[in-house]
Amino acid sequence: MASMTSNTNRMALAGVALVLVAGGAYYFGRVYPPRDAPTSGTIAPADRYRSSQIQNSDVALGDNSVPMLMQTDAFELMIKNPSFRALASDPGFMALAQNPAPSPPWRTIRRPSPPWRTIRRPSRQWPISRR
Asked: Does pTM top 0.70 for this prediction?
């Protein structure tokens, strides 16, 4: 008889476990994801950001005279020279550098170049054949 009771207990326990598993499957399959809320599944295509490529007009460059100066050999020599560094740290030189004198008016007038500078050279005919 003892085996009969243990067999009945096992069947009851299996039935309860089966009801719990079925109830959990029903809850997570039908009730848990809300039906009224606007949801989308994993099949919907992703909305990715797409923009045009950057154009030359999109980039605004400022004055590039300082970077061009810093890339010269003369600048390298100046910053490595201790006497120039002492001059650059002088307050009087700093004030002069902040307020440079205006250029004289005769420097702004362009004069034509003298005739001896505009010598035209005859054009050469290539190849020159010697027979």
From this structure: no
In a domain, 9, yes or no: no
**Nearest 10 degrees: CA dihedral of 111, 114, 115, 120?**
-90
> In 10 A of CB 82, how many CB atoms?
7
Provide the CB-side half-sphere exposure for 127 (13 A, CA): 3
Longest dimension (CA), the chain: 135
For residue 45, whether the previous peptide bond is cis, meaning omega lies within 30 degrees of 0, is no
pLDDT < 70 positions in the chain: 1-5, 31-44, 100, 102-131
What's the rounded Cα separation, in Å, for the pair 16 and 24? Answer: 12
Q: Give CA 54 to chain center in angstroms.
A: 11
Query: Where would I find the H helices in the chain?
Result: 2-26, 65-70, 73-80, 82-88, 91-98, 105-108
Q: Provide the domain limits for residue 86.
A: 65-99
User: What is the total count of domains within the chain?
Assistant: 1
If you search the block for the tokens 């400022």, which residue do you land on? 62
pLDDT of residue 18: 94
Is 121 a domain residue?
no
